Model the fold of this input.
Amino acid sequence: MKNVVLKGELRSDLGKKATKEVRANGLIPCVIYGGDNPIHFSVKLNDIREVVYTPDFKIIQVELDGKTYKAILKDYQMHPVTEAIEHIDFLRLIDGHPVKVELPVRFKGVSPGVKLGGKLLQTLRKVKVKTTPQYLVDEIFMDISGMDLGQSIRVRDIHGLEGIEIMSSPGIPVATIEIPRALRSAAAAAEKAKK
Done:
């Protein structure tokens, strides 16, 4: 599991004016939801880059005034013009409490269809799941070693996840082995030659 340590400063002043001041100082206002009360704090942009600008799923250890909170990135808002991060929401992980997250899908194995010249097209990059923190994984692996030309694997083909309930629709294709135009035209030429 990929963990990131994030140091932040607690915020006591809340509201538009205080938030504007935080941004003016080059900091990003953040909130941790979950538990009894939301925790307001701020972080530096450089500290948050490896959490926001990545396709990977990570657990964040947020350190605030000597206390550490285990959390995940839930959402972030960007400025509509400059695309600067304006606000970040985290969700606190509490043992025994289920959370809904989107996990990246990776592939293992070598597809016979790819060996024959097919192209692996990933149509679904993340799968929505529901689980408790102790069963949380940072990625889901799917075996493509049985995929031939023109075949697809779907969400229903994800197996071997203990304590994880898949929320995405089972019929959604995750990946397909596309038949390249050159192979299709070669197959068509072979058919014409037979006639």
User: Anything to note?
Assistant: The longest strand covers residues 67-78. The radius of gyration is 23 Å. The first helix runs from residue 16 to 24.
